[in-house]
Amino acid sequence: MISHISQIGVYVSDQDEALRFYTEKLGFEVRELQEGSGFKWIEVAPPGAQTTISLATKDFPVGEKSKVGRYTDIAFETEDIQAMYETYRERGVRFTKEPELQPYGKWFAAFLDQDGNEFFVFQPER
């Protein structure tokens, strides 16, 4: 039986630039960083998270340039969306949607990474 989601991929144009964005602006941890023969494998994750995000380029076997700068279908959760929004905004993260309480009872916001990949953040209603 499957126990959990191990990793998800996000396509980026420059892995080094993406690594700086995810660690410096979002505060993620580096979980894996391997280089060799013109190939680099990077996995990052929020502190304590089980699932990692692999920062892939169009040169990966299943990648293509058109996957960079897209809606990712990835949603994060936070305990305090307003504090997260203020912190990330001060760090230069671009938001496409400011925090707003949704009719279904969760707070919602959306932001872009350095390549324009879009992510959602939810906070359960308090």
TrEMBL record:
The keyword Transferase does not apply. Coiled coil: none annotated. Residues 4-124 form the VOC domain. The keyword Glycoprotein does not apply. GO terms for molecular function: dioxygenase activity; lyase activity. Pfam families: Glyoxalase. Keywords: Dioxygenase, Lyase, Oxidoreductase. This is Catechol 2,3-dioxygenase-like lactoylglutathione lyase family enzyme.
